[in-house]
Amino acid sequence: MRASLARTERAKLPPLPEALTRTETIAPLTASRTGELVSVPKAFLAELLERFAEAVAAVGRGNVRAVAVRQERTCLDAIISTGTAPAGCTTDQPR
Fold it and tell me: How far apart are CA 28 and CA 25, in angstroms?
């Protein structure tokens, strides 16, 4: 009788680089209130606050991407290992 040539082991995905799955944080403001008043032009303050908001939003978008990459890799690994998509892994995600 001839031995089966069916593959018994499943392929494994290589590990993701940490840079693709690491989430970022912004340190909280820790400056103590001194009570000193400082004059700053209103336009400068508005631009500064807008840039700060943009930076916070960029960190948020990066964190969403990192979580999505991690979830996609988990789903792909499960599909490769079992041949089916587990609950929570859908293929109809908008791009």
Answer: 9
Quick one: 75 exposed, middle or buried, by C-beta within 10 A (0-12, 13-18, 19+)?
A: middle
Q: Quick one: which of 79, 74, 63 has its CA closest to 21?
A: 63
DSSP readout, 24-82?
A: ---PPP-PPP--------HHHHHHHHHHHHHHHHHHHHHHHHHHHHHHHHHHHHHHHHH
Cα-Cα end-to-end distance for the chain: 51
Q: Are 89 and 75 in contact (CB under 8 A)?
A: yes
Tens digits of residue pLDDT in 37-77: 999 999 999 999 999 999 999 999 999 998 888 888 888 88
